[in-house]
Amino acid sequence: MKPAVDLNTARDRLVSGQRWVIKIGSALLTNDGKGLNRPGIQAWVDQISDLMSQGIEIVLVSSGSVAEGMTRLGWTTRPSEVHQLQAAAAVGQMGLVQAYETAFKQHDKHTAQILLTHADLSNRQRYLNARSTLRTLIEMGVVPIVNENDTVITDEIRFGDNDTLGALVANLVEADTLVILTDQDGLFTKDPRHNDDAELITEGRASDESFASMAGDGGALGRGGMITKVKAARVAARSGADTVIVGGRIDNVLIRLRAKEKIGTLLVADTEPEVARKQWIAGHLQHAGELILDDGAVKALKKGGNSLLPIGVKAVKGIFRRGEVVACLNGKGQVVAKGLINFDQSETQKLCGKTSEQQQALLGYVGEEELIHIDNLVVL
């Protein structure tokens, strides 16, 4: 573990960082559902172009396709049917991309549309392809505009919100900073919409679990609330990225952040950046199966530096193959780790609760000693 960051000087990292992922939410982009916020888009693009002239590489994660589609179609209420949401996304994506392209063209900058699904990041080859494409675009000075592919996605396999997507993109491109622009000024001790005594948290640690209890719910247009932004900060921290949650309507917000002005909430990453393969494992929102661990195994994993051995597993759920991602749960059903399993479901079931010495008698051959090797294991 690297030493904890001094929160008094944490904003110095916003000056030294050279690659930012900037996520803009639906409420900002669509004027709370009253049409596309073109003046706002132009203002953010102006600032992004300024940052790029300072040598900062930018990846933009943009919400707003469904909300813009609703506006174009004359819908006032977000539909619940998947096919209607997909249709709205398809219609809205046209306007959203057009608005960005027009705004960036004023600065002689090219943009590229990148639509991702969870399957793109769950499959190792597609993950590497997405990373290669994004890095190439960044090197070319093109601004990648990333969104979830809402036109083909279903609720069962979606990221859930673009805050999570922004954090996973930050992992993907190994960004220094994730900036989440929202309709609130930052993270408060209480919901400021209902509590006059709510105080803005200016700096904190992404690992601080107390922030989750302070976060509120999402609005009518977006799927994410402040809780998803706090969780996104923890995901971004896996690759060493700091996260800023800040009001997108604050004048010149991005430039002021770069100048270390104390606006918004900075949640710093204290942990060592994980290697690329572990980032990929940790980014899986779905898993092929589950292993229920005893208290001793949970304690050993939390301690760090340990592989998962069969003797610590009490039960096996799901059908999975060797090499797939499985989740490790404690007795309360909480996911404590994820990893690439060394055996398929039937073999794991046989080994469950047994010692390594019993493996040959149970399986008829000697394989790996561990169910999940430490190199393929991520403790959450």
| Main β-sheet description | 8 strands, mixed
Distance between the termini: 15 Å
CATH superfamily of the largest domain: Acetylglutamate kinase-like
Please identify the oligomeric state: single chain
Structural class: alpha/beta
CATH architecture of the largest domain, please? Answer: 3-Layer(aba) Sandwich
- The strand line-up of the biggest sheet is 3-4-2-1-5-7-8-6
Shape estimate: globular
Kindly state the number of beta strands: 13
Q: Please tally the helical runs, counting DSSP H or I stretches of 4 or more residues.
A: 15
Strand content: 15-25%
Report on the structure:
This protein is of the alpha/beta class and 380 residues long. It folds into two domains: 7-278, Acetylglutamate kinase-like (Carbamate kinase, 3-Layer(aba) Sandwich), CATH 3.40.1160.10; 287-379, Archaeosine Trna-guanine Transglycosylase, Chain: A, domain 4 (Roll), CATH 2.30.130. It has helices spanning 13-16, 26-29, 38-53, 65-73, 82-105, 118-122, 124-139, 162-173, 211-214, 226-236, 253-258, 276-282, 295-303, 345-351, 359-363, and strands at 19-24, 57-62, 111-116, 143-148, 177-182, 203-205, 242-247, 265-268, 289-293, 313-318, 325-329, 335-340, 377-379. The longest helix has 24 residues, at 82-105.
Short description:
The protein has 380 residues and is of the alpha/beta class. It has helices at 13-16, 26-29, 38-53, 65-73, 82-105, 118-122, 124-139, 162-173, 211-214, 226-236, 253-258, 276-282, 295-303, 345-351, 359-363, and strands spanning 19-24, 57-62, 111-116, 143-148, 177-182, 203-205, 242-247, 265-268, 289-293, 313-318, 325-329, 335-340, 377-379.
